Here is the input.
Amino acid sequence: MNILNTLAFLVFPYLALTTFVVGLLYRYLTNPYDWNSKSSELLDKEGLKIGITIFHWGVILTLLGHGGGLLIPQKVYDVMGIDSQVHTRLALVVGFIVGGAALLGLVLLTWRRITKDRVLATTTLNDFVTLGLLLFVITAGLANVVYGFFEHFDVLHSIAPWIRGIVTMTPDPTLMVQVPLRYKVHILSAFALIGFSPFSRLVHIWSAPFTYLFRRWIVFRRREVSF
Here is the structure.
Protein backbone atom coordinates (compact mmCIF):
# COMPACT_ATOMS: atom_id res chain seq x y z
CA MET A 1 0.00 0.00 0.00
CA ASN A 2 2.84 2.41 0.79
CA ILE A 3 4.38 1.74 -2.62
CA LEU A 4 1.06 2.39 -4.37
CA ASN A 5 0.54 5.53 -2.31
CA THR A 6 4.01 6.80 -3.25
CA LEU A 7 3.45 6.05 -6.93
CA ALA A 8 0.03 7.73 -6.89
CA PHE A 9 0.83 10.83 -4.86
CA LEU A 10 4.52 11.39 -5.51
CA VAL A 11 5.48 9.91 -8.87
CA PHE A 12 2.24 10.34 -10.83
CA PRO A 13 1.68 14.07 -10.11
CA TYR A 14 5.15 14.99 -11.32
CA LEU A 15 4.80 12.68 -14.31
CA ALA A 16 1.56 14.43 -15.23
CA LEU A 17 3.04 17.90 -14.69
CA THR A 18 6.14 17.05 -16.73
CA THR A 19 3.97 15.73 -19.56
CA PHE A 20 1.91 18.91 -19.30
CA VAL A 21 4.90 21.27 -19.64
CA VAL A 22 6.82 19.28 -22.26
CA GLY A 23 3.63 18.56 -24.21
CA LEU A 24 2.67 22.23 -24.36
CA LEU A 25 6.14 23.27 -25.53
CA TYR A 26 6.29 20.50 -28.13
CA ARG A 27 2.88 21.28 -29.54
CA TYR A 28 3.49 25.02 -29.68
CA LEU A 29 6.88 24.64 -31.36
CA THR A 30 5.88 21.94 -33.84
CA ASN A 31 2.31 22.91 -34.71
CA PRO A 32 1.45 26.46 -33.56
CA TYR A 33 -1.38 26.81 -36.10
CA ASP A 34 -3.27 24.01 -34.35
CA TRP A 35 -3.12 25.90 -31.03
CA ASN A 36 -6.80 26.78 -30.76
CA SER A 37 -10.12 25.63 -29.34
CA LYS A 38 -11.44 24.33 -32.68
CA SER A 39 -14.63 26.24 -32.01
CA SER A 40 -17.87 24.92 -33.50
CA GLU A 41 -19.62 28.27 -33.18
CA LEU A 42 -20.04 28.65 -36.93
CA LEU A 43 -21.84 25.30 -37.07
CA ASP A 44 -24.32 26.05 -34.29
CA LYS A 45 -24.10 29.42 -32.57
CA GLU A 46 -27.43 29.55 -30.74
CA GLY A 47 -26.94 26.24 -28.94
CA LEU A 48 -23.54 27.32 -27.69
CA LYS A 49 -24.27 30.53 -25.82
CA ILE A 50 -25.75 29.34 -22.53
CA GLY A 51 -23.68 26.20 -22.05
CA ILE A 52 -20.32 27.78 -22.87
CA THR A 53 -20.96 30.76 -20.59
CA ILE A 54 -22.06 28.70 -17.59
CA PHE A 55 -19.24 26.21 -18.09
CA HIS A 56 -16.44 28.74 -18.39
CA TRP A 57 -17.53 30.80 -15.40
CA GLY A 58 -18.01 27.65 -13.36
CA VAL A 59 -14.57 26.27 -14.22
CA ILE A 60 -12.74 29.57 -13.75
CA LEU A 61 -14.29 30.20 -10.34
CA THR A 62 -13.71 26.57 -9.35
CA LEU A 63 -10.01 26.83 -10.19
CA LEU A 64 -9.71 30.10 -8.29
CA GLY A 65 -11.45 28.49 -5.33
CA HIS A 66 -9.08 25.52 -5.38
CA GLY A 67 -6.11 27.85 -5.56
CA GLY A 68 -7.28 30.08 -2.74
CA GLY A 69 -8.46 27.24 -0.54
CA LEU A 70 -5.61 24.76 -0.97
CA LEU A 71 -2.52 26.81 -1.80
CA ILE A 72 -2.98 29.42 0.93
CA PRO A 73 -2.16 27.96 4.38
CA GLN A 74 -4.91 27.95 6.98
CA LYS A 75 -2.79 30.09 9.32
CA VAL A 76 -3.20 32.96 6.86
CA TYR A 77 -6.98 32.63 7.12
CA ASP A 78 -6.68 32.42 10.90
CA VAL A 79 -4.98 35.83 10.89
CA MET A 80 -7.91 37.19 8.89
CA GLY A 81 -10.35 35.77 11.45
CA ILE A 82 -11.51 32.82 9.32
CA ASP A 83 -11.07 29.60 11.27
CA SER A 84 -10.93 26.16 9.66
CA GLN A 85 -14.60 25.43 10.35
CA VAL A 86 -15.80 28.60 8.62
CA HIS A 87 -13.28 28.06 5.83
CA THR A 88 -14.55 24.53 5.22
CA ARG A 89 -18.20 25.54 5.27
CA LEU A 90 -17.56 28.42 2.89
CA ALA A 91 -15.63 26.12 0.55
CA LEU A 92 -18.50 23.64 0.49
CA VAL A 93 -21.18 26.23 -0.26
CA VAL A 94 -19.20 28.08 -2.92
CA GLY A 95 -17.88 24.82 -4.35
CA PHE A 96 -21.40 23.47 -4.71
CA ILE A 97 -22.53 26.58 -6.61
CA VAL A 98 -19.60 26.97 -9.00
CA GLY A 99 -19.01 23.22 -9.37
CA GLY A 100 -22.67 22.73 -10.15
CA ALA A 101 -22.48 25.50 -12.75
CA ALA A 102 -19.43 23.88 -14.37
CA LEU A 103 -21.17 20.51 -14.51
CA LEU A 104 -24.42 21.94 -15.87
CA GLY A 105 -22.56 23.88 -18.56
CA LEU A 106 -20.54 20.83 -19.55
CA VAL A 107 -23.63 18.64 -19.76
CA LEU A 108 -25.30 21.21 -22.03
CA LEU A 109 -22.22 21.37 -24.25
CA THR A 110 -21.95 17.59 -24.42
CA TRP A 111 -25.64 17.26 -25.28
CA ARG A 112 -25.25 19.85 -28.02
CA ARG A 113 -22.23 18.06 -29.47
CA ILE A 114 -24.09 14.75 -29.55
CA THR A 115 -27.46 15.96 -30.82
CA LYS A 116 -26.41 18.54 -33.41
CA ASP A 117 -25.53 16.63 -36.58
CA ARG A 118 -23.17 19.25 -37.98
CA VAL A 119 -21.27 19.52 -34.69
CA LEU A 120 -21.17 15.75 -34.21
CA ALA A 121 -19.73 15.31 -37.70
CA THR A 122 -16.69 17.40 -36.76
CA THR A 123 -16.21 15.79 -33.34
CA THR A 124 -13.13 13.57 -32.98
CA LEU A 125 -12.30 10.76 -30.59
CA ASN A 126 -9.95 13.17 -28.84
CA ASP A 127 -12.89 15.52 -28.22
CA PHE A 128 -14.93 12.73 -26.64
CA VAL A 129 -12.01 11.72 -24.41
CA THR A 130 -11.60 15.35 -23.33
CA LEU A 131 -15.30 15.67 -22.54
CA GLY A 132 -15.26 12.36 -20.68
CA LEU A 133 -12.32 13.36 -18.52
CA LEU A 134 -13.87 16.75 -17.76
CA LEU A 135 -17.17 15.15 -16.83
CA PHE A 136 -15.47 12.63 -14.57
CA VAL A 137 -13.25 15.17 -12.79
CA ILE A 138 -16.03 17.71 -12.25
CA THR A 139 -18.58 15.09 -11.16
CA ALA A 140 -16.12 13.53 -8.71
CA GLY A 141 -15.29 16.93 -7.25
CA LEU A 142 -18.93 17.93 -6.91
CA ALA A 143 -19.72 14.57 -5.29
CA ASN A 144 -17.03 15.28 -2.68
CA VAL A 145 -18.63 18.64 -1.99
CA VAL A 146 -22.09 17.10 -1.51
CA TYR A 147 -20.63 14.35 0.65
CA GLY A 148 -18.83 16.98 2.73
CA PHE A 149 -22.14 18.45 3.91
CA PHE A 150 -22.90 15.20 5.71
CA GLU A 151 -19.51 13.79 6.69
CA HIS A 152 -16.54 16.01 7.48
CA PHE A 153 -12.97 15.24 6.49
CA ASP A 154 -10.12 17.61 7.36
CA VAL A 155 -8.93 18.60 3.89
CA LEU A 156 -7.12 21.69 5.16
CA HIS A 157 -4.55 19.69 7.13
CA SER A 158 -4.10 16.74 4.76
CA ILE A 159 -4.75 17.36 1.08
CA ALA A 160 -3.96 21.09 1.25
CA PRO A 161 -0.41 20.72 2.68
CA TRP A 162 0.22 17.82 0.29
CA ILE A 163 -0.67 19.89 -2.77
CA ARG A 164 1.44 22.80 -1.48
CA GLY A 165 4.30 20.35 -1.13
CA ILE A 166 3.86 19.30 -4.77
CA VAL A 167 4.06 22.95 -5.82
CA THR A 168 7.09 23.76 -3.65
CA MET A 169 8.89 20.53 -4.61
CA THR A 170 8.73 19.23 -1.02
CA PRO A 171 6.00 16.58 -1.36
CA ASP A 172 4.95 14.34 1.53
CA PRO A 173 2.84 11.46 0.15
CA THR A 174 2.21 10.12 3.66
CA LEU A 175 -0.30 12.96 4.10
CA MET A 176 -2.54 11.18 1.59
CA VAL A 177 -2.55 7.75 3.26
CA GLN A 178 -5.65 8.38 5.38
CA VAL A 179 -7.49 10.45 2.78
CA PRO A 180 -10.83 8.87 1.70
CA LEU A 181 -10.86 7.14 -1.67
CA ARG A 182 -13.36 9.60 -3.16
CA TYR A 183 -10.87 12.47 -2.77
CA LYS A 184 -8.04 10.36 -4.20
CA VAL A 185 -10.10 9.52 -7.28
CA HIS A 186 -10.84 13.20 -7.90
CA ILE A 187 -7.20 14.22 -7.44
CA LEU A 188 -5.72 11.49 -9.62
CA SER A 189 -8.25 12.06 -12.39
CA ALA A 190 -7.51 15.80 -12.27
CA PHE A 191 -3.78 15.14 -12.73
CA ALA A 192 -4.61 12.75 -15.58
CA LEU A 193 -6.58 15.56 -17.22
CA ILE A 194 -3.66 17.94 -16.73
CA GLY A 195 -1.28 15.49 -18.39
CA PHE A 196 -3.68 14.91 -21.30
CA SER A 197 -4.58 18.56 -21.87
CA PRO A 198 -1.60 19.51 -24.12
CA PHE A 199 -2.83 16.97 -26.66
CA SER A 200 -6.41 18.26 -26.72
CA ARG A 201 -8.31 21.44 -27.55
CA LEU A 202 -7.79 22.54 -23.93
CA VAL A 203 -4.54 24.23 -25.00
CA HIS A 204 -6.62 27.29 -25.91
CA ILE A 205 -6.76 28.08 -22.18
CA TRP A 206 -3.22 29.42 -22.44
CA SER A 207 -4.17 31.76 -25.27
CA ALA A 208 -6.97 33.51 -23.42
CA PRO A 209 -6.73 37.28 -24.09
CA PHE A 210 -6.26 38.32 -20.46
CA THR A 211 -3.97 41.15 -21.58
CA TYR A 212 -7.03 42.88 -23.05
CA LEU A 213 -8.00 43.81 -19.50
CA PHE A 214 -4.82 45.86 -19.04
CA ARG A 215 -3.99 47.21 -22.49
CA ARG A 216 -4.39 50.87 -23.39
CA TRP A 217 -7.56 52.07 -25.02
CA ILE A 218 -7.55 52.02 -28.80
CA VAL A 219 -8.42 55.48 -30.05
CA PHE A 220 -10.08 55.81 -33.43
CA ARG A 221 -9.85 59.21 -35.10
CA ARG A 222 -11.84 60.32 -38.07
CA ARG A 223 -9.72 61.59 -40.85
CA GLU A 224 -11.17 64.43 -42.93
CA VAL A 225 -10.12 64.30 -46.55
CA SER A 226 -10.37 67.49 -48.52
CA PHE A 227 -10.39 67.71 -52.29
